Amino acid sequence: MIFMYDVMSKKAEDFINDEEIQQTLEYAQKNKSNRELIEKLIERAEDCKGLSHREAAVLLDCDQPDSNEKMFALARRIKEKFYGNRIVMFAPLYLSNYCVNGCTYCPYHAKNKNICRKKLTQEDIKREVIALQDMGHKRLALETGEDPVNNPIEYVLESINTIYSIKHKNGAIRRVNVNIAATTVENYRKLKEAGIGTYILFQETYNKKAYEELHPTGPKHNYAYHTEAMDRAMEGGIDDVGCGVLFGLNLYRYDFVGLLMHAEHLEAAMGVGPHTISVPRIRSAEDINPEDFTNAIDDDTFAKIVAVLRIAVPYTGMIISTRESKKTRERVLELGISQISGGSKTSVGGYADEGEPEDEHSAQFDVEDSRTLDEVVNWLLSLGYIPSFCTACYREGRTGDRFMSLVKAGQIANCCLPNALMTLKEYLEDYASEDTVKKGEKIIAEQINNITNDKVREIAKQHLFDLEGGQRDFRF
Ligand code: SF4
Ligand code: SF4
């Protein structure tokens, strides 16, 4: 069978066409020292309209130190233009580690008999959510293994309902993003009706052969079904989807190109590109040794991937988890990351068991940044960032192409800044330590005057005052 590269096709092997990727990689290698082309691309990307996968691949391979410096500077400028100094906070919530798949890099794989299998009951979920609310979280990413018997769609839907229903003290989970296995259009429709924010699914690797080897058994083995999942999600009415690869599984250059081709496909064929891109790197876990994966990438390469992604897809939020150390997170925050997790537990039931060490036998991966949410918020404030607990867009119906057109027009910042300040204020009122309050109040006082629209600024000031008086949940 011959596959042709076709960005509009609904077939995985057409829109993620291996031949196109191979040619792109050759083109990038051939031009890695082509200063004229590289300078031209950097100059053109200054208009914040992004780059094609071929153009971005050239920048990723560029071996000219001064051009690389220019690239990093451009990534910083784009980050500043679209996201300012705001960083959105979230936490993962693991519902169940029952899984029928055989992913060789994940301890939840079906053949792992050493792991303690757990599935949260609705009562357990309440306890987890209360613990998360008491930390100050408002936005969750729901995670669960694939298991039609233990974790059917009905279980996921019921759990989402439970999560949204819990209001403990001033706490509330206002946005539930969902990271579950590739499923049917009908199930995606049900998730949409349940009020999810973003549907997240990592491709792991775009290389079909490597993909099939890494997923030897279970439904996830089906490359096409997995790769076409975002199209089905969008058909089911979910217009915010989150893509990502697990860097280290396969050659990073291949997956970088595949990721951008996937984004181009969604934009061309479905009318809107991915809402977010995640950039996880492989980590050690029970039964998993990252040294077995020979494609691991170093910190410099990782930083360059983040910077070139920022340049190539300026409108797409970028997420980094607690897989990465404080040092790495600090480095990539300025290069393009707009969302980070904090105080995360990567095991099932990890939040409610406060004070106890995380159960090593059910964690999906080792957490490198194990600070509490307050420590992460405090650290961000010390670095001059505004930690934001905003969830407004999805709740105001600003999703999909409506959201993207506001971002592209540069108008979304008019909402993001006041929302960041108001949700930070809520956090300071309800959950923060004394030192975090001091730093947070200072940044709010400084930043409130950066709201350019006079009317919005005055309303935001009033809301900040009302928050002190006990009212909650204001948004633009
Ligand atoms: Fe299951 Fe997901 Fe782990 Fe694969 S990565 S074994 S699908 S939980
Ligand atoms: Fe995100 Fe929208 Fe809030 Fe901005 S206003 S931080 S884009 S949810």
Topology summary:
Elements: H1 12-15, H2 18-30, H3 35-45, H4 53-61, H5 65-83, E1 86-96, H6 122-135, E2 139-144, H7 153-165, E3 175-179, H8 185-193, E4 199-200, H9 208-214, H10 223-227, H11 229-235, E5 241-244, H12 252-270, E6 276-278, H13 299-312, E7 317-320, H14 326-333, E8 339-341, H15 373-382, E9 386-388, H16 392-395, H17 400-408, H18 413-430, H19 434-447, H20 454-468
Parallel strand pairs: 1-2, 1-8, 1-9, 2-3, 4-5, 5-6, 6-7, 7-8
Helix pairs in contact: 2-4, 2-12, 3-5, 4-12, 4-13, 5-13, 6-7, 15-19, 18-19, 18-20
Describe the structure.
It is built from 20 helices and 9 strands. It has helices at 12-15, 18-30, 35-45, 53-61, 65-83, 122-135, 153-165, 185-193, 208-214, 223-227, 229-235, 252-270, 299-312, 326-333, 373-382, 392-395, 400-408, 413-430, 434-447, 454-468; strands at residues 86-96, 139-144, 175-179, 199-200, 241-244, 276-278, 317-320, 339-341, 386-388. With 476 residues, the protein is of the alpha/beta class. The longest helix is centred in the N-terminal third of the chain and has 19 residues, at 65-83. It folds into 2 domains: 81-370, Aldolase class I (TIM Barrel, Alpha-Beta Barrel), CATH 3.20.20; 392-468. Strands 1, 2, 3, 4, 5, 6, 7, 8 and 9 form a 9-stranded parallel sheet that branches. It binds iron/sulfur cluster (2 copies). One iron/sulfur cluster binds next to loops. Residues 99, 101, 103, 106, 108-109, 145-146, 181, 220 line the site of one iron/sulfur cluster.
